[in-house]
Amino acid sequence: MKIALAQLNYHIGNFESNTAKIIDHIKIARKNGADLVVFAELCVCGYPSRDFLEFDEFIELCETSAQKIAAECTDIACIIGLPTPNDKNEGKELFNSAYFIENGKVKAIAHKALLPNYDIFDEYRYFEPSTEFSCIDFKGHRIALTICEDLWNTIENPLYVTRPMDILIEEKPDVMINIAASPFAYNHDEERIEILSDNAKRYNLPLLYVNNIGAQTELIFDGGSLVFDNTGKLIDEMPYFEESIAYYNLNEKATITFEHPSTLRKEKQSDIEQIHRGIILGIRDYFYKSGFKQAILGLSGGIDSAVVCALAAEALGPENVMAVLLPSRFSSDHSIKDAEDLVKNLGCMHETIAIKDITNAFEATLSPQFKGLPFNIAEENIQSRSRAVLLMAMCNKFGYILLNTSNKSEAAVGYGTLYGDMCGGISVIGDVYKTQVFELARHINKDREIIPENSIIKPPSAELRPNQKDTDSLPEYDVLDKIIAEYVEGRSSSATIIKMGYDEKTVRRVIRLVNLAEHKRYQTPPILRVSPKAFGMGRRMPIVGKYLS
Amino acid sequence: MKIALAQLNYHIGNFESNTAKIIDHIKIARKNGADLVVFAELCVCGYPSRDFLEFDEFIELCETSAQKIAAECTDIACIIGLPTPNDKNEGKELFNSAYFIENGKVKAIAHKALLPNYDIFDEYRYFEPSTEFSCIDFKGHRIALTICEDLWNTIENPLYVTRPMDILIEEKPDVMINIAASPFAYNHDEERIEILSDNAKRYNLPLLYVNNIGAQTELIFDGGSLVFDNTGKLIDEMPYFEESIAYYNLNEKATITFEHPSTLRKEKQSDIEQIHRGIILGIRDYFYKSGFKQAILGLSGGIDSAVVCALAAEALGPENVMAVLLPSRFSSDHSIKDAEDLVKNLGCMHETIAIKDITNAFEATLSPQFKGLPFNIAEENIQSRSRAVLLMAMCNKFGYILLNTSNKSEAAVGYGTLYGDMCGGISVIGDVYKTQVFELARHINKDREIIPENSIIKPPSAELRPNQKDTDSLPEYDVLDKIIAEYVEGRSSSATIIKMGYDEKTVRRVIRLVNLAEHKRYQTPPILRVSPKAFGMGRRMPIVGKYLS
Q1: Which residues from A are below 8 Å from B290, CB to CB?
Q2: How many CB pairs under 8 A join A and B?
Q3: Is A148 a catalytic residue?
Q4: Is the pLDDT of residue B547 over 80?
Q5: Residue of chain B whose alpha carbon sits nearest to that of A217
Q6: Over chain B, what is the mean pLDDT?
Q7: Which NCBIfam families does this chain map to (chains A, B) (predicted)?
Q8: Residue B91: which of A54, A161, A354 has the nearest Cβ?
Q9: What one-character-per-residue DSSP string does A518-548 give?
Q10: What is the C-alpha to C-alpha distance for residues A222 and A55, in angstroms, rounded to an integer?
């Protein structure tokens, strides 16, 4: 039996394009002699469709699409994922399901049993867990079909009290197929391989695993579909961050062979390389799927906006990126020169708009109210917000989307101006620590200097007052980033972090800043998620409370 | 046996103040001869503590507080709610639990079985559902103790496949106690009474129900704890929107009597009266719990900002409200006069800051880029955003929190400027439709004219271009609000709404606008929730997708 694995980029709620893409790949698979073609979890509607799953019409459109797909499968079988109604009068209204389609009809349905409901996942919000399992017979093979998290219950640390494969294995399947929507984080590829390998070994069965690819606003899916033999050995790995279809022969003794050159990665990609590829896909899909072409951003001469500009130029083409220099009286000459050099290196569009007259007008207008009071954060923020108003005016006039250039370290401690530099349609590096931004800049420059060396080596500064440096208000970034990671990703208490050897006063101050910035982060753009714990939908904190410190 | 029900206002993560408040009320209950005092769900840490529940330290602090409370209970019993670790090595790490404390010790623990995971609820994110249930014997009575949602599984439309009371009833309890954190919506009080009454009748047992009160950022808890006899008759109702303690005698035949004058409401409060009280509590707790005192807002002369100003003055005192008139060249004379009249009626602080010089500076600065292009939404938004920069500068200089004045109709269709009038720390009327804002204004004016009649009767306008009216771009609000409600709250498709008799073109346009505004709503402040379906944490939609229409 020849099985095609199709890892494709779906568009949430775009039934027309998703259905057309699935049918196209059924035709391709047929032409290549496949008996069965396997698509990813919830491919019909896209993952995550979120509260659109609560609309009856949305669920009906899923079924209509599935019927169109079934009509195409007269001489080839396929597996597709879609939400289906729970007909019992109890529990949630839907299942997260897989259709096994053969001879133009739905021959079998598998429902997901283990529903992730942590970090960015909300599956209990919509779905009832399945309690019934059975294998599917096809062409002399018996398939144990499961959906993503169904294989994610580890022996050491079981997240769930049941394990669907423990039930399915009693029917003596000779192969496992798992369809998934497993979002990207720079370390998640290795975790996936480990958990899936463990399943293949535990059940002594080969395993074919199909993942989604493509970005859905903040969530990036990296593909990298996987094939294991019954010893748990990874025998093939489909490409990461791109659409692909590949063919595998399931032989009589349930061994797997394939004819194409193996795409197994020779070595693990570095974290930064993965982050780079993830962000490029994230930007591209955000623009493509929302029907926009051109980005705008403010270029300060600093490293963050330089990196975002370079990434945007790579993702959208430099001709679609408008970089705006917005110097104030505090902008240093080298900053302006660094920004100009970057624009030259990239070949993107650019404008220079000085903000002096505007900030003067704000200060003059407010002089009756601010009379006698010293320059402080109010005036600093006026600069940042004036820039945002200018950039948004350009968006409104010309149809750009503003890219946010805040990094994760700033987002964590609230080192940014709400309605100022925290604006944007999408945050490009909001899940990348400042120390990683430096690495990313070096990575972008690996073949030629794109980001001016000076932007990389000079001390970071917001340039909102004379001679300001980030380290005036914050610890050095190498210390700051580690404390933030311990608190945000490790969920460690200040006591624990202090015990690790960090300065007590610094730790307490950083954690306090992280907590106090919740109200700011609540109003920031969606952040492209590249780490296991990004700010946004995967981290849900109270705004008004008294916090740990 | 005398049972005290204590409905109190907790502060998330403020273990010190929550514990002190609980202990104070144990002392008060003891002084009043109570045998048992019952506090609300998760009272120890506050509800919803959200992802703080993922911090080990947070859970340890809950247990430490519980032990302090237990030490106080040497001669009185109490029931408190807190998260507790799940000791089994499978499933989620926590239970949502109730401690029954007697003789200074935890005598029994009940875990919640039915975990709401819809709308604003995320309980499966943290908690494992309980599968074991047993009653608690105390002073000759047998108590069936459950937690909130445990009683929420209706016969007609069961949300869950189990029903804890069906198991507990086999131990022949003579009373039910339920501790809850049931958030306010203007129609939720009646639903609660109906469901709880149904439980009392079904199990033929009296029922004492203790709810939380107080606002936690966007979520408002309205109290209104309830006592039913075994026929399902509501025999007492504690006050709404305020802290309270009340005493009930559970007699030998499990009948309930009480000595205080009944606080059973003679008639249902109107929706608008409830919304009014809910918002006042919401504003007050937002400021109090975040340690701020003073609010600022922009006053346009229109009804929305007038209503918000009046509500803020009531919640915080007029001396703590700064109303800023920010006229532009498009502001009409009557708008300025209406705003001035309001300020006079309320006696709040006020400033007038004309934005002309600032918008002129923006337009002059952008003239090279905008040369030859007509005035459009770019210039309109510059006005709105200039006002936001001014208001935020006042916040930064003087320590105000900016109140957002958008209503639900605007929030729905995106009729507002991101980083302009959509700014603010908290959205006061973002869950109140424009048609309800008019009702709210009338309600506020019921004793004397606070909101100038002219603000109520004139046609709504954003005044961002000459002679602009909302109805230039939007349908009449009475039609618009109904279509939005059908789509957002009813989750009806356009086809269904059109079948109800609404104009097809209007319906499709409104739904399209609602969908397109997702990216704006993502970045708006938390919205005080007063309806069963508010924008914010209870409605989670994709931003980039192709939508229903």
Answers
A1: 519, 543-544
A2: 271
A3: yes
A4: no
A5: B544
A6: 96
A7: nadE (TIGR00552), PRK13981.1 (NF010588)
A8: A161
A9: HHHHTTSPPB---SSS-SBTTB---SSS---
A10: 28
**Position B155 pLDDT exceeds 90:** no
Chain B residues with beta carbon closer than 8 angstroms to that of A376? 396-397
Strands (E), B86-182: 94-102, 105-111, 136-138, 141-147, 175-179
* CA distance to partner chain B, nearest, from residue A253 (Å): 35
Enumerate domains of chain A plus CATH numbers: 2-260 (3.60.110.10), 273-470 (3.40.50.620)
Q: Are A356 and A328 in contact (CB under 8 A)?
A: yes
Q: Which of B436, B61, B71, B337 is nearest to A549 (CA)?
A: B61
Q: How far apart are CA A513 and CA A519, in angstroms?
A: 11
pLDDT of residue A254: 83
Shortest Cα distance, chain B CAs vs residue A12, angstroms: 5
CA angle B387, B388, B392 (to 5 degrees): 120
CA-nearest residue of chain B to A17?
B546
> Among residues A2, A21, A112, A434, which one is catalytic?
A112
* Catalytic annotation present for A112: yes
CA A290 to CA A313: how far, in whole Å? 18
Residue B157 pLDDT > 90:
no
Query: Distance, in angstroms, between A473 CA and closest chain B CA?
Result: 17
Task: Please name which of B427, B399, B409, B440 lies closest in space to residue B282, comparing C-alpha atoms.
Answer: B427
Catalytic residue among A148, A309, A348, A395: A148
Closest alpha carbon within chain B to A291? B544
pLDDT of amino acid B49: 97
Contacts of A514 (CB under 8 A, 6+ apart): A412, A413, A414, A484, A487, A488
Q: Is the Cβ–Cβ distance between A109 and A83 less than 8 Å?
A: no
A91/B56 Cβ within 8 A: no
CA-based max dimension of chain B: 87
Q: Tell the residue number behind the tokens 């002190």, with chain if given.
A: B20
Alpha-carbon gap, residue B318 to B336, rounded angstroms: 19
